[in-house]
Write a structure and sequence with these properties.
Layout: E1 2-7, E2 10-13, E3 18-26, E4 33-39, E5 46-51, E6 57-59, E7 67-72, E8 77-82, E9 91-98, H1 105-110, E10 115-116, E11 120-125
Parallel strand pairs: 2-11
Antiparallel strand pairs: 1-3, 3-8, 4-5, 4-9, 5-6, 7-8, 9-10, 9-11
């Protein structure tokens, strides 16, 4: 069993930055892919980025340039660096882990994610 816990959310002004962290506990995640999603109330969950167990990164087209995913397998942590934030980035951000290695961002977006965190709120004010 795996537990994921996000941290680093909060309130920031437009143009600012935040770094989210996803800490994993339970079994090792060295062979899991990690990903970040976000969701606004009333809207579908949106894929942001994924990083495979061999550190290959994938981004949704709309997220390229301002979001950077990374991971530290030894520390069982994945990160999402968010720069130049905009009010439309306000959402609950979730991390997830998958046992499946996909080969494209669209596959990760639509794929199976075995474990999810509880989410962390990000609010960007104008």
């Amino acid at each position: 069993q795996v537990q994921l816990a996000e941290s680093g959310g909060g309130s920031v002004q437009a143009g600012g930055s935040l770094r989210l962290a996803c800490a994993a506990s339970g079994r090792p995640l060295s062979d899991y892919g990690m990903g970040w999603f976000r969701q606004v109330p009333g809207k579908e969950r949106e894929f942001i980025a994924a990083i495979s167990w061999i550190y290959i990164t994938y981004y949704a087209d709309s997220m390229k340039g301002r979001f950077t995913i990374s991971r530290n397998i030894g520390r069982r942590t994945a990160y999402l660096q968010m720069d130049n934030l905009k009010p439309d980035d306000s959402a609950v951000y979730y991390c997830a882990a998958t046992t499946i290695t996909y080969s494209s961002a669209s596959d990760y977006a639509a794929g199976v994610w075995n474990y999810w965190g509880q989410g962390t709120q990000v609010t960007v004010s104008s």
